[in-house]
Specification:
The protein is about 80% helix and about 5% strand. The protein has a two-stranded antiparallel ribbon with strand order 1-2. β1 and β2 form a beta hairpin.
Length: about 130
């Protein structure tokens, strides 16, 4: 979970910085349509992913929350060319949003949830073995 948060945080930060410094022409612009507001969103969400990667309690909810937002952005992007009148939508960006959203939801819900369930099960088994073998 920590590694995912650090990886996706770094990718989003790189995309945000890249969108600010790469000229508004060429393949980058054609695929992703970076705007100032879109770059700022990637910088902020990337920074949040990185910041909470160090805080065990916040990882799951951040992954689920931001994953849900990215998934909603991907779905919304299928139906409009401009999200909220501020963020131009492009197929490559919608695909990236879909991947980030799905992976974040999976990581926060399935992987982190599985670790919590297995840890609770192990703790319960330890208590039972102590009770059985005093």
């Amino acid at each position: 979970m920590k590694r995912w948060m650090q990886t996706i945080g770094g990718v989003l930060l790189a995309m945000g910085v890249g969108g600010l410094v790469i000229p508004d022409t060429g393949a980058w612009h054609d695929w992703f349509h970076p705007t100032l507001s879109h770059n700022l969103i990637h910088l902020i969400s990337g920074g949040v992913f990185l910041a909470v990667s160090q805080r065990k309690q916040a990882r799951r909810w951040t992954s689920l929350g931001l994953g849900g937002l990215y998934l909603l952005a991907a779905i919304w992007g299928l139906f409009t060319d401009n999200l909220f009148g501020v963020l131009p939508s492009a197929a490559a960006m919608d695909t990236l949003h879909l991947l980030i959203g799905a992976a974040s939801l999976y990581t926060g819900g399935i992987i982190d949830g599985a670790f919590k369930r297995s840890s609770a099960k192990e703790a319960q088994e330890q208590v039972q073995s102590r009770d059985e073998n005093p």
